[in-house]
Amino acid sequence: MYGGGNTFEAPKPEELETNEDPQLLAAFEARIARGEKIEPHDWMPALYRKQLIRMIEQHAHSEIIGALPEGTWITRAPSFKRKMALMAKVQDEVGHAQLLYGAAETLGKSREAMLHDLITGKSKYSNIFNYPAFTWADSTVISWLVDAGAIVNQTANAKGSYAPYCRALERICAEESFHLKYGHDAVVHLATGTPLQRQMVQEALNRWWPPIMHFFGPPDKMSVHTEVLVRWKVKMATNDECRQQFMDMYVPKIWELGLTLPDPNLRKNAETGVWEYTEPDWEEFKRVINGDGPCNKERLAVRRTAEERGAWVRKALLSPKMQYVAPLA
Ligand code: FAQ
User: Where is this region: Disordered (predicted)?
Assistant: First the structure.
């Protein structure tokens, strides 16, 4: 069973308060309240460290696994221009994982341990990358709307409290905004193309909408970690706030293209300004994040193979003999 044993289990209150020196905890919380950034060498509660490792590590895993559904379309992209752009995007996503693993390492967990926990199924990664990209249109919907969702979440959290994570997120968001433009252009191309192209992108939207709604995490009332993460300014917006912001920014753009979304109840309440929608199937979400989605086994198998095939490269690079190799001119 993937996902470890801590799914939807609230952090124990005693972990939060009683194990920590009250004076140090108060000073730490005062720093957070003043909007100061925490650096790796600063004192921090054990739970803050643990939560950050969990969240940044899952985020890093999501980036390398996230390269896979779109990656399968590089060789089948419909033009040379699209192939070049998609290849650069996928490469960027893997680079984001590098930045994030580096940020998580500052908290004391080694990269080897994180990758081990990914490939053994102990650690989670985003639900969304456990679905197949059947057609080229699926890859364009990922590039536009999954990147859009990632930007909503990550531009908020880039203003958070843990400095190394914020620095990584700032760089990541700059690149993600190029991905979003590329994805939007590719979706517009299909939506304004032949009837078959329109049909293809509509079908992809229908497939991806429920996992995109899941992407922002469970509703706030079901979320386990939001309270403490918001309190310590790791999460700068709740799951529901991010979901609402995403719908506010992108549902009108989807409708403008004459495309529809597979939810008859989706509407913005004119009085409250809040988007109303049918709750996506949260039981499916739990199954997918715990290893039982359409592609979980395939995704982890690819990562396991990459680890095995790359072992000799890591061994060679770490070999003492490497120090005698002259640098390339
Ligand atoms: N998928 O208490 P909460 C990208 C888990 S990057 C899987 O609400 P939290 C770029 C959660 O871990 C995408 N699991 O959790 C790209 C917890 O389980 P645990 C990733 C999920 O942490 C684009 C349990 O449910 N982004 O897309 C998900 O407060 C295109 C309870 O949930 C980030 O990682 C989910 N969607 O809020 C790449 C951003 N949601 O650990 C390629 C940073 C929840 O107790 C192509 N992370 N769970 O076993 C976050 O902002 C937060 O961690 C949330 C979840 C919002 C994801």
Answer: 1-21
How many distinct structural domains can be found in the chain? 1
In a domain, 232, yes or no: yes
Q: Closest ligand 1 atom, CA of 59?
A: 34
Q: Per the domain annotation, does 317 fall within a domain?
A: no
Place of tokens 């890859």: 139
Q: 87 CA distance to ligand 1 centroid (A)? A: 25
The whole-number average pLDDT for the span 65-83 is 97
pLDDT of 319 strictly over 90: no
Question: How far, in Å, CA of 106 to CA of 41, rounded?
Answer: 9
CA dist., res. 115 & res. 45, Å (int): 25
Reported pTM: 0.93
Q: Is residue 8 part of a domain?
A: no
Q: Is the pLDDT of residue 305 over 60?
A: yes
In a domain, 325, yes or no: no
Residue 131 clears pLDDT 70, i.e. is over it: yes
Q: How many CA atoms lie within 13 A of 30 on its CB side?
A: 6
The number of the ligand 1 atom at minimal distance from the alpha carbon of 67 is: 42
Distance CA 222, CA 117 (A): 25
Atom of ligand 1 nearest to the CA of 147: 23
Whether residue 266 contacts residue 277, with contact meaning beta carbons closer than 8 Å, is answered with yes
Q: Which of 114, 103, 110, 115 is nearest to 40 (CA)?
A: 103
Pocket test for ligand 1, best of 48, 51, 131, 224 (most atoms within 8 A of CB): 224
Q: Provide the CATH number for the domain around residue 168.
A: 1.20.1260.10
Using CB distances shorter than 6 Å, the residues near ligand 1 are 3-4, 6-8, 54-55, 58-59, 62-63, 66, 93, 124, 126-127, 142, 146-147, 150, 153, 214-218, 223-226, 229, 235, 239, 289
